[in-house]
Fold this protein.
Amino acid sequence: MTRPLGLATREAYGLALAELGRERPEIVVLDGDLSKSTMTKYFAKEFPDRFFNMGIAEANMVGVAAGLARCGKVPFVSSFAAFLMCKGFDQMRVSVAYAGLNVKFVGSHGGISIGEDGVSQQSVEDVALARALPGFAVFVPADEHATRAVVRAAADHPGPCYVRVGRPKAPVVYPDGCDFRVGRAIQLRDGGDVTLVANGLMVAAALDAAEALAREGVEARVLDMASVKPLDEDALEAAARETGGIVVAEEHLLAGGLGSAVAMSVARRRPVPMGFVGLDDTYAESGRPEELMAKYGLTAERIAEEARRVLALAR
Amino acid sequence: MTTTHPAVDLDRLRDRARELRRAVLEMIAAAGSGHPGGSLSAADIVAALFFHELRHDPHRPDWPDRDRFILSKGHAAPVLYAALAACGYFDAGLLRTLRRLGSPLQGHPSVRDLPPVEASTGSLGQGLSVGVGEALAGRLDGRDYRVFVMLGDGECDEGQVWEAAMSAAHYGLINLVAIVDANGFQLDGPTDEIMDLGRLEEKWTAFGWDAVTIDGHDMAQVVRALAVPRPDWGASRAAGGAARGAVAGGAMSGAAAEAAGGAARPRAIIARTVKGKGVSFMEGNNEFHGRAPTAEELQRALAELAAGGAAR
């Protein structure tokens, strides 16, 4: 089925941030000359005194946020995910993670669905990098409603966070609002034959895949794993026990992302056959978002295929 | 440049610096590893800061109005630890645990393990950015503390230093002071051979700072250079007048602030120093960049320090 398109998750982030700014004077925002794209522009317009454009200098921006956090501010730091995580990584590691400081990083234009701008702007490593940092929480919301809940949860969370949002309008998964909790999977559909785990744009694709599988008589459980870290290992163990197979889908490299996190947990707690949908050791290219998603296999069809393969192994 | 505090006892500060050097050598020798050269070159400046210029309270390391000191050249951790112990932040006996398993005195400063340390450093180039953030927070909150950041000259190879320098000038952070401990060496050799920094003072000036070059071992010069006035954000606001967001937010470039009646440049102090200062066989000897003295070398070094103090 086609889900109605809602706001882009970056747009929802920008609006949620301005909303939080009204409630919490300790929130400050830093951006690396991309506020019109990351949508921190809404906060900047409303709270110019608490908005700092740090220019095209991500490493410094991350360090400055650490200093602000050390003095009791709650900085939200934004850029494109690729630049924020890759150029600011050493500073996140030493100035923020090692120091245990309360800084919120929000990378926009995550994944390949940013489209035509091409590989240098397409972030496919960010979740792996953020996951690797001790003490970091990592969230990848699926739609505008999930984003609003995630941004609020990130502000409440005591410690550093990374949130990935996307460029294109996102299909609405939570028309009635999203009850996001840090470290909790959200079950969007129940099923006993196989489990589909996804986050970001791949949640809508997983729901579509579940509907296709249902037409074949396969009942798939769907878990939105917006909270990549901490990970809901209990939900995964239950899924493994009750459905016997798990497929993970993400708009990210397979190495180090959600699939890796889920596989480690499943291997440790209750090994079952698994399948993975994501970029397999490759970059994408320029193209329209939907063309790229199709060419690189980030589709409901691929998820359903992988589920059939896992089902065959599980039987 | 502002005048020296009339009551400052330079001899007392020189004695303090010698005590820091002694503690540095003893703790690195006990640890069996560490970086004596860059700790000794920084000792006079660190003594002037902790025993004279900084407003701080060892009983309240989280005092919001404290002056901050960030050791961006984190490998000089021993001189920072020596100063903190001498001020009473922790018992001096702890210095003997440097680099040992379970000690809060990590090989490079860790704010999580030792809260009086202002920032976790050791990956060169990061401290000035943290200082910019602390200085910005001070401006936002209207507090009159100052933030001092010590960098190495080799550290100025790092691009992040210049990103931070640019942003400090852009935001008119008159409460920020960068001190470059220019001892002329980095790990692999002399800085002008490894990566020539050129005219360092002119670089900082070009980045919008009020830069001065001093002899980093001349206590009178050190004390004078560090005497940066406390920010009076209310006055800056009044002086800024119609300048949009002059104080509470937004950018205020140095030029804009000066036009508005205030000198709004952060201070950069290029301190020419001698690596290994105070111990004849370590001075200018880059072997002691990152090697502990042997027991015999330690005894000779301590004897020299003691004699130097008596002969002062």
The mean pLDDT of chain B is 91. The interface with chain A takes residues 64, 110-112, 118-123, 125-138, 140-141, 159-160, 163-164, 166-167, 170-171, 245, 248-251 of chain B (CB under 8 Å). The longest helix of chain B spans residues 10-31. The CA atoms of residues 15 and 309 of chain B lie 7 Å apart.
